[in-house]
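Form 7-S
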Amino acid sequence: MITQLKFEGKLNFKVGLKRVRSCMRKNNIRVNVRKKKRNRIKRYEEYISENLLACQFNRRHKNEVWVTDTTEVSYFANNELRKVRLHVVLDLYGRFVISHNLSQTETSVAAIETFKKLLRMNHKHIRWVHTDRGAAYCSISFNNYLEKMNCVHSMSHPGHSWENSPIERWWNDFKLLWLARHPRPRSFRELEQLVEDGIKYFNTQKAYASKNDLTAEQFRNQVA
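Output:
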């Protein structure tokens, strides 16, 4: 403050900081100070997992590492737009969708149910799961479930979407190449069918140059 007053030519005599403060108090002058922001992310990270996967997305075996995420999808009902959450579990080997689930909200219950569906399909082990730091994946119930299954949980850093890029790319293709090319569903059941057909398309009908011109299913079936 004293430096700025001298620079502006408003102070032509020596003065100490105490005298300035005294003058400010007498004239009821207050300085505007920006409140210090709390580092909420840093405090929160103390209670969640680190990024153990470290962008090592290329895997040599099926069911070695699964990535999961949720996105918003919608449908019409009674002339009103309804929004729900689509949960997907993607096997990094071949980028093959092995489970999905539609829920009204993004909750730990819905996230857990997506994995329980896998167990009902004869997947006996959940070895390694990578997620972002959404509320459902940071919840105690979800992490207790993974711990019960002896599963390693890796998490992306806040705002680092590239640390879960395989499923981010899958969402992009699913929305642009599938949902955007079909009429919006007129019921929840129509939405369910559209999602199931879309997953089937990307798993079994779309060929990928990165997979030697094979579908995700064909690429996946190359190994035992």
